[in-house]
Give the backbone structure.
Amino acid sequence: MATFQSLPGFRDFYPEDLAKRTHIFRLWRQTAAAFGFAEYDTPVLEPLDLYRAKSGDEIEAQLFSFADKGGREVALRPEMTPSVCRLVGARANALKRPIKWFSIAEFYRYERMQKGRGRCFHQFNADIFGEAGPEAEIELIALLVECMRVFGLTEKDFFVRLSDRNLWFHYLGSLGLDEPRIRALLGAVDKHERGGDDAFKPYEEAFGAIPADLKAKVLAFQSIRSFAQLEAALGAAAASAELAQRLAQWRTLLGGLEAMGLAGFVQVDLGVVRGLAYYTGFVFEAFDRKGELRALAGGGRYDDLVGRLGGTPLPAVGFAIGEMTFALLLEERGLSPAVVQAADIYCVIGSAAERRAAFADIRRLRALGYRVEYPMRELAFGKQFKAAADSGARLALIYGAEELARGMVKVRDMAERSERDVPAAGVGDAVRGLFEAH
Ligand code: HAM
């Protein structure tokens, strides 16, 4: 008979795995709430057109897309950004600004199989709409860092590489290149770190061999690793009103991050340009310090997208952390929690005759918020005590015929191995007292 497995790149979550994921999501939710972000969600299935010519060629090529029974062209969402733009754009005038929203959701991309990348994965997305200045970037990078720090990771474990597509456009424009060539070169820069000079192939296929001096200039610009180097590379052009204003924004951003105590987490790095097509300004990506893993997170400013998707134009900036790579990093650093949920109370039940009394208490104790387990079938006492120990319960309640005849239930402290009788009519109060005394 055929056995069925999950599709390549799709994961099953057994309870112990899901407990880890849930723990990650819980801390991300708490952190986003502390920063004043509100949670939203959107459909998994979207019109294909939402992604066409917006996310960029790479994501478009990776779409899970098909025609539905009504003949509509649809796609499983590969990312959240176009969807959240639709939501915000449709209500832009009614929403209080700045709009600070987050979500935790599942995405689908037909990726090549590799470590830390799946075809189905979760992201935490956080975005700010309606704020044009770098103050939004400060808030978001602070949130990104906190979402990692809250697990015990430090600046020795990860960092954020900060770059600027706006300056890349300026710089390549100043070399006399038109927009299609600039976009092709940014594509090459995005791939160069992992792919080497092969990254220039798509540019050369479209526009012919790249002149050696242009290639040298591109490689030099992408190797910039500090604000001082950046100013120097722009040279005399930095005095132009437009560039002077841009550099002032850089100073605001770096100054704000420093004031937030985040300077040690952030590295100026023009080698980051982001693969997605819609970014217009500052862009950033988070990586593990050892450089062993794929990107942990990525984001940036995309001031045109809300308007291009038909909404009221709104400046926007945001990022997404991928759960898969992040979980690998936590695992490697020994920070992945052992979150097997133990029972609080195990009820040991003598025989069918004692079940009535036990069941009434089980219902009450659960309503009080305790995690309560009991044997589904009649079992010998020895087996029940073993099950009680395996469940991790702190207390065992023993409903024996002899105790109940005296109007009592026996309570055993599983760690101390001590026992006492409590009145059967007041088990809830007795248990609460014992848990509070601990
Ligand atoms: P992205 O760089 O495509 O950006 O994805 C962000 C993060 O999601 C990556 O750094 C990675 O951790 C994770 N990720 C992406 N693809 C996969 C995959 N196939 N398997 C596992 N994890 C993956 C975006 O998606 C933008 N929409 C982020 C954004 C939000 N920009 C503005 N707002």
